[in-house]
Each structure stands twice: as C-alpha cells, then as structure tokens.
From TrEMBL:
Sequence similarity: Belongs to the GTP-binding SRP family. SRP54 subfamily.
Chief location of this protein within or outside the cell: cytoplasm
Entry keyword annotation includes Hydrolase: yes
InterPro entries in UniProt: AAA+_ATPase (IPR003593), P-loop_NTPase (IPR027417), Signal_recog_part_SRP54_M_sf (IPR036891), Signal_recog_particl_SRP54_hlx (IPR013822), Signal_recog_particle_SRP54_M (IPR004125), SRP (IPR004780), SRP54 (IPR022941), SRP54_GTPase_dom (IPR000897)
The keyword Isomerase is annotated on this UniProt entry: no
Entry protein name: Signal recognition particle protein
Superkingdom field: Bacteria
Catalytic activity: GTP + H2O = GDP + phosphate + H(+)
Species: Roseivirga thermotolerans
Gene it is expressed from: ffh
Length: 439
C-alpha cells in the first residue's frame, strides 16, 4: 500500500539530513520534493499545493527543540498535515432505525458486493443481526455472488431474482428483516461501468424510497483521480455519508485516499485491502498517515489480531506452550490464522520500519506454501512428536512435499529454535509468577 509515495517522501526528508536548523532555503527544497511526491501519487495539484504551503508555513513557524532534528520535525508536521488531509478524525457510520438501512452505491467492479459481505461479517462479529439484500436487477450473477458470500460468513441474503423493481425488493427485504428480528439491512445495488443517467436515477430513487441511515459510496482506489471525479459526481446526486476505498492492496500511489476528503468533503469510513472477507478496516486518518510515513500501525495490527483470533484456541495454545507441547499441528493452525488476517505484505507494513524493508519484495500467501506442504507430508505421529523425525523420515517428507531436504532441515531447525525460545519464556515467566506469589 502506498509504497511509491512512502519512498518518495522518505527521499524528500533526506534532503534535510545534516542540517542543523530549518531555514527558508532548506525547507523550500524539501517542500518542493514533497509536493512532487504528492503529485506523482496522483494527488490533485491544487490539494498538493495547499498542503505543502501549509507544511512550509508550519515548519518555519515552529521552534526546533534541541532534541529534534529538522528532519524529524518535518516528518511530524507532514504526518499532521496528511492526517488533516484525510479528514483528521475517524467518522463512524450512523445506524439508526429498526432496521437500520445501509445503502451501498458505486460503479460496477468497484467492489460493492465484496464490501457488502465484509461489512456484514464485521457487524455480525460485533454481535449484530444483519440481513444482506441483493438489489442488482441486471446481473443475476451478482445475486449468486452475494449468496455465496452470505453462506461463507453465515449471514442471510434476501433476493428476488425475478423481480426487476429494486425499490420493491429492498422494501420487501426490510419487511423480512422486521419479521425475523434483523437490526441492520445492507442493500447492495447495481452499478454500471461508467456514470450514466439511468443508474443515477435508480440509486437516487432507492435512497428516497428507503431513507437509509447510512449511504456509502464504494470506489476503486487504484483509479486515482478518476476515483475522486466519480466520487464528486455521485456525491452531487446522492449526497452520500461516507466513502469506502477498495483495492488499497494494489494501490502503490494513494492519490484517491489523499484527495477525496478535500475535494468531496465526505469522510472515508472504510478501506478494503484484499479479496478475503477479513480484509476490511475502519479508516483512521492518523493511522493511515503513520503507515504512509513508514511509522507502522501497531494499533491496527493488534485490533486485527484480536478480531481474527479465536479466544478459546488462544487459551488452548497458551496451555500447550506452557507445557512445552507446541507441535507442528499448532504451527499449521497458526499459519492459517495469520493468513486469515489479510494481505501479508500490508500486515508486515504495520510494523514500524518494516514497510521500507519490504519494498519490492514479493510476499504473499504463497510464501507459506512450502512450509505447509512439508508439515502436511508428515504423519500424525511426526507432527505431534517432531523429535522422531530422523534422516530417512526427512527424505520421505521432502519427496512427499516436493521440497528439498535442505528446506525440511531449515524448517526443523526453525521449529526447534521456536520451541527453545518458548521454553525460555516459560522459565522467565514462571520465575516472575513465583516472585509475585511470594510478595
Ligand atoms: P461490484 O461490481 O462493485 O459488486 O464489485 P465486486 O465486489 O464484484 O468486485 C469486483 C472485483 O474486485 C472482484 O474480483 C473482487 O474480488 C475484487 N475486489 C473487491 N475488493 C477488493 C480489494 O480490496 N482488493 C482486491 N485486490 N480485490 C478486490
């Protein structure tokens, strides 16, 4: 996410390296570089100019503390300005009414249906009763797609494949929700490949008829300035409440994320970073600014882990670790959990300093494949008692998994190191526990 922009900003800050203080001259050079980086990221020129003028003004107006270098101070100022540019504070959805209606709008292919599923899953995990409604009256495939997603996440999908009246379908869905105790109805609508009058009239009609408490506009961030223009057009007609930026996993520039708020004056409420149902985040401008500047986003990482990890599983695992019984089956299920959390590269980028280190590297779920193949080629006995895996077993496992003995050996060594570490942690933890008992 935003790799190009992060790299260029980093370069801009370097122009201040070795400078003892901020002056008109050195700040001018850096700010020019920052502006260029923003324009290269497909940020609207006017927005880029406004922001960089402000950065310059702030930089010259602030006293540099002795402990802070001009470079550090500028990073801080740019962080604040990027945060402001993206709206400053997180804005929540409004869910009012019984049921509360959430209307999803956007062009075809922007990711509406996928997002509807993700939002339903997120709300369900917060303990809410949700009904998904398929209102794409043109593409029967879209109804099937939503049904498949609904099944996957365990949320009911309301559809009337023969009915060509979207308002009627949605109203029936609301009635159905009332009679089945569902508190939130998410209405997925039809899109077109480009803005067209009929689509606009239809979505306007739906909004008038349903009076949703939240209307979201979904847009593909990879389309850069086009995304911003489409948002503007939709907003003029629909006056939506919030933006959902999708496909941020493939967006190395970030122009849409940075410009939408200033141009459209509507908050970004969610971001989507992959095709999996778990790849959704509530949008926090400050955390995003941190990520862009390579400062990581540990808070989101922890929240994501909490959302994905099963507490019961975690307790069981903890017990196994304490008894030093962590085995290859546990290892495998941990890999599965991590994969469920979403795009690996984005996840790693949330660790401070990691984003830069990972630049250009290709990390995806496939990176785990050889490890999984090796573990899956082990017998049940071998997984539970790794000590029995001798030379001939290693050869069999390598042959079975299509890997080399070297790779099997590496994994065995990593696993042994991991266990050693766990043992050590247990000991330290145990000592502490004893000490606290003695107090
Ligand atoms: P709709 O026509 O607006 O309903 O769009 P879909 O939900 O069908 O999405 C279009 C395509 O984009 C599908 O192949 C999705 O899997 C894919 N997609 C949706 N969101 C994301 C995302 O955040 N990242 C990536 N990489 N793909 C996405």
């Amino acid at each position: 996410m935003f790799e190009n922009l992060s790299g260029k900003l980093d370069k801009a800050f370097k122009t201040l390296k070795g400078q003892g203080s901020i002056t008109e001259i050195n700040v001018a050079t850096t700010v020019k570089e920052i502006r260029r980086a923003l324009i290269d990221a497909d940020v609207n020129y006017k927005v880029a100019k406004e922001v960089t003028d402000k950065i310059k003004e702030e930089a010259l107006g602030r006293d540099v503390l002795i402990s802070v270098s001009p470079g550090q101070l500028l990073v801080k100022i740019v962080n604040e300005e990027l945060t402001q540019m993206m709206g400053g504070k997180k804005v929540d959805m409004t869910l009012q009414g019984d049921p509360a209606v959430v209307l999803i709008s956007g062009l075809q292919g922007s990711g509406k249906t996928t997002f509807s599923g993700k939002l339903a899953r997120m709300l369900k995990s917060q303990g809410r009763q949700v009904l998904l409604t398929a209102c794409d009256i043109y593409r029967p495939a879209a109804i099937d797609q939503l049904k498949v997603l609904g099944e996957q996440i365990g949320v009911e999908v309301y559809a009337e494949p023969e009915n060509k009246n979207a308002v009627e379908i949605a109203n029936n869905a609301i009635k159905h929700a009332k009679s089945t105790g569902k508190k939130i109805v998410i209405v997925d609508t039809a899109g077109r490949l480009a803005v067209d009058e009929q689509m606009m009239q239809e979505i306007e009609g739906l909004k008038k008829a349903l009076n949703p408490s939240e209307t979201l506009f979904v847009v593909d961030s990879m389309t850069g300035q086009d995304a911003v223009n489409t948002a503007k057009t939709f907003n003029e007609r629909l006056d939506f409440d919030g933006v959902v930026l999708t496909k941020l996993d493939g967006d190395t520039r970030g122009g849409a994320a940075l410009s939408i708020r200033t141009v459209v004056d509507k908050p970004i409420k969610f971001i989507s970073t992959g095709e999996k149902m778990e790849a959704i985040d509530v949008f926090h401008p400050d955390r995003m600014a941190n990520r862009i500047l390579g400062m990581g986003d540990v808070v989101s990482l922890v929240e994501k882990a909490q959302q994905t990890f099963d507490e019961e599983e975690a307790k069981k695992l903890n017990k196994k670790i304490r008894q030093n019984k962590f085995d290859f089956d546990d290892f495998l299920s941990q890999l599965e959990q991590i994969k469920k959390m979403g795009n690996l590269k984005d996840l790693m980028g949330m660790i401070p300093g990691m984003g830069k280190a990972l630049k250009g590297l290709d990390i995806d779920d496939d990176s785990f494949k050889p490890i999984e193949a090796i573990i899956r080629s082990m017998t049940k006995d071998e997984r539970a008692n790794p000590e029995i895996i001798n030379g001939s077993r290693r050869k069999r496992i390598a042959d079975g998994s299509g890997t080399s003995i070297q790779e099997v050996n590496n994994l065995m060594k990593q696993f042994a190191d991991m266990r050693k570490m766990m043992k050590m942690m247990n000991k330290v933890g145990g000592k502490r526990a004893m000490q606290s008992l003695a107090q």
